């Protein structure tokens, strides 16, 4: 069975074709970074307009790369939320129209379920149950995943998401959008010194599994204001900020694994592309003699492959969309129906 996946929730148009027998056949991504860079962040109207331009050529390319025709498809999956409404509508309309023309189902997919399942695209996928750490631009969550589609939220950020904290801190350091990867590069290439500052580890002593990153950003602002604007200061701040986020994530993951009596961790979402954070979590899990799974870096950030995969699972469970086009800018992950076939 073949499922086409379309991702258009934010600033990247992603398209992929997933085969339930052979796995991922082809995928392609178009990033809007140059469009939004001059504004320092995503401009929703420009995002929607660019998705419109890119989505059809990307579908053609992916079908060609996969060696299939559109008539071979069994379903079209699309990101139905959460995300920017104008951006979501482009993918949803395209998927719904294509599915109607081909007389096949359209499958609405939850963007965060896509992220969470992305490590299953790898050669050694995690087995259920596990604890998932979802760290993206809009969400930071710890989730108990008993089975595919069964998501119990154990904790989340009470203020900024981890990716948002990266982006805002990067802005304070004068780095261009998109901040997260730029901040990582500054810490690494600028040989940032982990001992130069000690930033707080908010909520680390609390017994719950929630996160908070807003205070960390304020601590960075104080140091930026004191700094003499030397490049080395900035690299040091970037490094120490990254260390603080990594510590908070490790600490709460460990707590979540203890509370659930599990020793398998799955880490997904844009921030899981960060090498320092991957390494810290790997070290922590090695000490616990547990296993940690990530997606390859290009599938940590937004992509069509994760939507095609999640769409395939929902399709096989018989969960197909109606003829209506519905998108959900806000959509709690815990409200999804179970994925039992
Ligand atoms: O998952 P994602 O692509 O989109 C959302 O669903 O939000 O995540 C984007 C977020 C952004 O905040 C971006 O700065 C962050 O992930 N990010 C990173 C890295 N790559 C992306 N943060 C830190 N280090 C990175 N290498
Ligand atoms: Zn995302």
What does this molecule look like?
- The chain has 341 residues and is an alpha/beta fold.
- The protein is 42% helix and 19% strand.
- The protein is built from 10 helices and 10 strands.
- The chain has helices spanning 33-37, 44-66, 85-102, 111-117, 162-172, 179-189, 214-226, 231-260, 275-287, 304-316; strands at 2-7, 12-19, 23-31, 75-81, 106-110, 130-135, 140-147, 150-156, 264-268, 291-294.
- Helix 5 packs across helix 6 (179-189), helix 5 (162-172) runs parallel beside helix 7 (214-226) and helix 8 packs parallel to helix 9.
- The model has no long low-confidence stretch (mean pLDDT 97).
- Residues 10, 115, 136-138, 163-164, 166-167, 178-181, 184, 269-271, 273-274, 301-302 line the site of 5'-O-[(R)-(carboxyoxy)(hydroxy)phosphoryl]adenosine.
List strands and helices in order, with pairings.
Blueprint: E1 2-7, E2 12-19, E3 23-31, H1 33-37, H2 44-66, E4 75-81, H3 85-102, E5 106-110, H4 111-117, E6 130-135, E7 140-147, E8 150-156, H5 162-172, H6 179-189, H7 214-226, H8 231-260, E9 264-268, H9 275-287, E10 291-294, H10 304-316
Parallel strand pairs: 1-4, 4-5, 6-9, 9-10
Antiparallel strand pairs: 1-2, 2-3, 6-7, 7-8
Helix pairs in contact: 2-3, 4-10, 5-6, 5-7, 5-8, 6-8, 7-8, 8-9
Bound molecules: 5'-O-[(R)-(carboxyoxy)(hydroxy)phosphoryl]adenosine and zinc ion (ZN).
């Amino acid at each position: 069975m073949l499922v086409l996946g379309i991702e258009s929730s934010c600033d990247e148009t992603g398209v992929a074709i997933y085969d339930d027998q052979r796995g991922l056949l082809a995928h392609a991504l178009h990033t809007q970074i140059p469009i939004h860079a001059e504004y320092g962040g995503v401009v929703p109207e420009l995002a929607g307009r660019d998705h419109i331009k890119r989505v059809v050529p990307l579908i053609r390319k992916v079908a060609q790369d996969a060696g299939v025709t559109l008539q071979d498809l069994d379903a079209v999956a699309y990101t139905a939320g959460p995300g920017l409404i104008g951006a979501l509508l482009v993918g949803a309309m395209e998927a719904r129209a294509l599915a109607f023309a081909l007389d096949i189902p359209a499958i609405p997919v939850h963007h965060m379920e896509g992220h969470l399942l992305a490590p299953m695209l790898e050669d050694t996928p995690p087995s259920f149950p596990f604890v998932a750490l979802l760290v993206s631009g809009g969400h930071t969550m710890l989730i108990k995943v008993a089975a595919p589609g069964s998501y119990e939220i154990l904790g989340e950020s009470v203020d900024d998401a981890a990716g948002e904290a990266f982006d805002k801190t990067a802005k304070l350091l004068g780095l261009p959008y998109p901040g997260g990867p730029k901040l990582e590069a500054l810490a690494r290439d600028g040989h940032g010194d982990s001992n130069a500052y000690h930033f707080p580890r908010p909520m680390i002593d609390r017994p719950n599994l929630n996160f908070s990153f807003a205070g960390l950003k304020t601590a960075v602002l104080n140091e930026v204001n004191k700094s003499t604007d030397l490049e080395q200061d900035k690299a040091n701040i970037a490094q120490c900020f990254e260390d603080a986020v990594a510590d908070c994530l490790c600490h709460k993951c460990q707590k979540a694994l203890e509370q659930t009596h599990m020793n398998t961790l799955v880490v997904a979402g844009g921030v899981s592309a960060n090498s320092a954070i991957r390494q810290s979590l790997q070290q922590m899990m090695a000490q616990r003699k547990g296993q940690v799974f990530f997606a390859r870096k290009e599938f940590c950030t937004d992509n069509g492959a994760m939507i095609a995969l999640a769409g395939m699972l929902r399709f096989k469970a018989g969960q197909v969309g109606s003829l209506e086009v519905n998108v959900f800018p806000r959509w709690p992950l815990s409200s999804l129906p179970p994925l039992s076939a």
